[in-house]
Write a structure and sequence with these properties.
This protein is α+β, with helices and mostly antiparallel strands. 32% of the residues lie in helices and 21% in strands. It is built from 16 helices and 22 strands. The protein has a five-stranded antiparallel beta sheet with strand order 1-12-11-6-7. The radius of gyration is 31 Å and the shape is globular.
Length: 582
Amino acid sequence: MSGAGAPTVTIGQASAAGRKEANQDFHGVLVPSQPALGLKGIAVALADGISSSAVGALASETAVKSFLSDYYATPDTWSVKSSAQRVIAATNSWLYALTRRGLDPHDADKGYVTTFDALVLKARTAHLFHVGDARIWRVAGRSLEQLTEDHRVVVSAAESYLGRALGAGGHVEIDYHAVTVEAGDLFVLTTDGVHEHVRPRDMVATIAGAGDDLESAARTIVETACEAGSPDNLTVQIVRIDSVPEGDAADLLGGVESLDPAPLLDPPAEFDGYRLLRTLHSGPRSRVYLAIDAQTGDQVALKVLSLDLRDDPAQRKRFALEEWIARRIDSPHVLKAQPQTRRRSHLYTVMRYVEGQTLTQWMRDHPTPELEAVRGLIEQLAKGVQAFHRREMVHQDLRPDNVLLDTAGTVQVIDFGATTVAGVVEGDPQIDAAEILGTVQYTAPECFLGEPSTAGSDIFAVGVIAYQMLTGRLPYGDGVPRALTRAAQRKLRYVSARTTRPLLPAWVDGALHNAVHPDPARRYRALSEFVHDLRHPNPAFTETRRAALLERDPLLFWRLLSLVLALIALGLAGILIAHPPR
């Protein structure tokens, strides 16, 4: 089962109460249709409610059902790890709250407590999530390789207890592991009632002997455990990877990138139900037209791919991703996609048209802006960028040309052609090109070392923009793109904004320096911290001493030093002339 752009699998499952009156295990599998299949993958889950609790079965059922429904309700842009861990943590909180409202609120042994394991198969990776003492295995030759570690504390040969489980506390630590998969790989999930009574090599032999009938193999393993004297509930899930995708994002993006790119047109012109009025922008990657939607009468910005890029499959995917991203962010500070009302004949994007100007033009019109004006614009820009980060996206090309101010003064982030989306990259790593996609003046230093862009890279870009708005310059001049080693980056010297704006508060300059620090580990961790420090003096930046001249203005420092040395040399020469050596 499965489809293009995702693994195909065969699954067998079996569960039984065994010697107990009730089965407190619960298990399930969900193979969604596209596009969720490509974006989220296939989910397999297993839970084992603790036997000391009368509500253990309800806890295990809640854990599995919640995961299989809520995981697919998380944003498409999130990675598997983020999506699954947040869902599992929420389920843990819910189960713990039920226990606290129960008859024995302080006795976890009688609460809504369960072990939990999940296996999510997306593209060529298996993502494992584990809490408790159920196990996830992978067939290795004639035996099983245990991929999870039991969270069981052994007190003595006769006594042990669960050290970690869902619902046992307000917070749960979730083990996560990711492994690359290939066609033919076999994964096995078991509860302790099975693996404590059936040897791994006997499970592998049973699976091998069943051929394609994995349901029969699962039933046989459960029966073997019961016959071996298991006193517990018994559950087995067997997952065989029949094929893995080659990493094509067609299913992720709805296949729109397979359309022929729209032609370049000379307005006025009619195209695909739009009336093109004039060209708004023409660059090396794309051309943007102001157009009227003939069906709705709305003004839109219609973008087509440039001639040089239309034969590059990676560029076409990235171009198609722009509108896909815009439809998944809801923020007044991010450009919105125009609602699509009809099928398209070609590949192009349609965004809402914003009447206004770029931040580049605003800076030309305001060469020496007031600090308060800069704060207000940066706060809006930060809100737009934070909307990307909340969805696990990194814009990667933040620059004044990609920031619009409408006629009401509202800031909107535009141009998502370089944006990295965690959830999409997992499904198609090739869509995330290795080269730097943003504009080098605003690209964080770590990116020039081949490191991936992160939210911290966007913070660097916002800091550079703020610095440029206040000074008209760049904080390191043209040094960052030329610093291609860590040693060279350690030599970068921040030019204090107070060199150009001497009345700028020292703590504002400190905030700017922190935002654009060459070392990402010493940079702000969140844009909210930077925005806060632009308005509120940070004690770390409020020292009354002036910054060293070398740090504030390296050029002036060396000029003054040269002057001092020259004066010393002249003085020595005068002494030698007045008192020549004998």
